[in-house]
Write a structure and sequence with these properties.
By secondary structure, this protein is mostly beta strands. It contains three helices and 26 strands.
Length: 434
Amino acid sequence: MALIFSPLLLFLSFMCFRLLGVMPFTVIMSDSGVPSALVDGPQTGFSMNKDGARTDTREQEAVYDIMRATGNDWATDIPDVCRGRWHGIECMPDNNDVYHVVSLSFGALSDDTAFPTCDPTRSHISPSITKLPYLRTLFFYRCFSYNPQPIPSLLGQLGATLQTLVLRENGHVGPIPIELGNLTRLKVLDLHKNNLNGSIPVCLARMTGLRSLDLSGNKLTSIPNFSFPILSIFDLSQNLLMGSIPSSIGACPGLIKMDLGHNQLTGPLPYSIGTLKNLMLMDLSYNRLKGPLPMWIRSLISLQTLILKGNPMGPTPIPSDGFDGMKGLMTLILSNMNLHGPIPSSLGKLPGLRVLHLDGNNFNGSIPTSFRELESVSELRLNDNWLRGPIPFGREMVWRMRRKLRVHNNSGLCYNANSGLEDSGIGPCDTPRP
């Protein structure tokens, strides 16, 4: 039985996994409200006990082929696959009480999710998948890693019904087939962590109803100019993307998460990003983006997490009012960016800030006294800069952060007595400084 979540729960689950430091999974979103030849009704095999109901025989034979192709020969002993009560298959009845397969899921997603596992040495996607004319969800997780193979182009034949396609960590090789552009009803496309290469096909822009696009963890090299009107999740991190970030990204007004981190992108941040009023997380870390930090960042009024570390955007200062008004900002990571000048006191006036990393830059001057007002901060990194003067934090704030307060390698910093900073790697203020 597939997991059914709303788009809001999709994002919340992502954020929870993110905070825990765990790579999130794409969950399968409900397709309720989409016109269908099937009648509304239960979607789990556990409830299909209606007298006279039966599974379409052609679809049943197709499921047998698909199960054999993944090493699950046991399925051929089940006389009715829709009423056989196993997790990983969902069926719905039509007006004649004939059940049709609407969802197939494979792979050990978690200890609590008993999808059929795959034999990784010989599994493949059977062409019989095209004989399931009502299929909405297709999910394969770690099924072909010992038998690397391209994504079969025949999946493009599922365009009339398919809404969720997840081929996650399967070892797929080669380019993304252009036939996937025929999946115009797709809402979720997840090809995370395979060995896909080449350019991202422009034809994916035909998926105008796409809500979540995850192509992260591959070897893709370029982003085309395309827009998705209702896209919420956009993850192309950990690829080999080169060139600039396309300005067409601003034509995705529904974006909540944008992750382009760990690539080779160059140039400045396009102004069009500033129009993404719903954006809550933006990660552009470890690219080759140039500065200075644009003033339009503060127009991202919904932003909660901003990660720009590892981009050589200096030598430049942080504008004194560069983050004014961003009351929802909780995580700000600006490490190793060659930023210069003083740390603006306005950063201490962001009431929701919990994580602030400014380490590995060339900041000078003192730590702003306004930082004492960061009552929610639990992690602060100021190490490896050129800061001077007394650290303005009280004992309670220091104890709250403990080892997550890092101020070492600032030769001019010192601490006052009874501040709780005796083990911070710096000296007391009553000791003569060099």
